[in-house]
Design a protein that fits this description.
Alkylation response protein AidB-like acyl-CoA dehydrogenase, 10 helices, Butyryl-CoA Dehydrogenase, subunit A, domain 3, oxidoreductase, mainly alpha, 61% helix, acyl-CoA dehydrogenase activity, AcylCo_DH/oxidase_C, two-stranded antiparallel sheet, FAD
Amino acid sequence: MAELDAGEVELLAATLRKTMSGIRGRELDAALTDLGWPELLADAPDLAVPMVFRLLGETGSHAAVLDDVVRQAVPLAEDVPVPLPFAGGAWALWDRDGESGGSVDEELPLRTIASGTDLPDAALAAGRRALGWWLLGTGHAMLALARRHVLERKQFDRPLASFQAVRHRLAETLVALEGAEATLNTSDGDLGALLAKAAAGQAALTTARHCQQVLGGIGFTAEHALHRHVRRTLVLDGLLGSTRELTRQAGAHLRTTNTAPRLAQL
């Protein structure tokens, strides 16, 4: 695929957003194939992965693109889903032809299995970066919902956005998301990918907590969209290692090597 200029990238992103906003699951898998996702992933993964996965989070849609990213480094038949490690030593399959409802997030065609085979380091790193961008997009979707709520709703004849406690929570959320994005943008190597996934997971969990608090009672109900993003965050955080597990793994690595590698040039 020829290198895309800035205008073409912007047009592609707009097309993907519009597509993801209307469909999901197997229908979205087919639409992404028609839009050239396999070719873009093969030829320009540094462009394809951040764009597609962040948009999945922002739109609340889902597709089996994580399986596509991981299987690039796993020698499996094309019609066989890749077993993915999950938090707590569990295993899961993202079955693009399966039915949804097998996980905390009822919309995802994700089901648990008894066991799996350890993935190559390259596959883990690629999958963690992709999940990091997905978590980042989900975090921004939750923040947008909370921001809209506090601008529209009033208490004591004042917009909720005027209260300092609300502002502090949303400001902390934005700082966490911006930090996660910076980590993802410098996530070279296996350790960088591990830390980026952990940072994005922590940012999304922080966002879910603060936005839930800001939205109050309505954020707990099925009438509001927040609960879908919270469930999505919990599932994505667990895939390929949870934030807590990856943080401990990074600490163990530093203790073993007795060095802290430079992850970014400042």
